Write the structure tokens for this entry.
Amino acid sequence: MAHEDRAHQLRLGRFSQPQGVYLVTTVMLHRVAVFANFTAARKLVRVLRQPDVEARAHTLAHGVMPDPLHWLMQLVGGDSLSQCVQRMKSLSTKAVGLDLWQKGFHDRALRHEDDLAEVARYVVYSPVRAGLVSKTGAYSHWDAIWV
């Protein structure tokens, strides 16, 4: 089975829990490091903070990497997880002015026993793990409500 077919089959089983917390990872089209550009990265950060996105998903933490985006969020509107991610992708594509995203995304639903602070630390520590900076504070494109 081709990769695209497997990815489609996985999306068929995706379930969105109202008020659910998800760690979403989505990658750039052709894995181009668009967000290595400071201005493009800041535009995506602004999109994550837009009322239209915040009405659908409350951002708990994000890490805008050159490629990919890690987004810890909680659904707050009536949209499904797929609808919410699609809206963010659409708005960021318009803001940056480029076709940005590969189809689909990876998600992990967090359970009550998961440590949200630990997952948020994972998100904001991503630039250090990737070797982009030596410490989290040296990277400009992350935020979290707590770390």
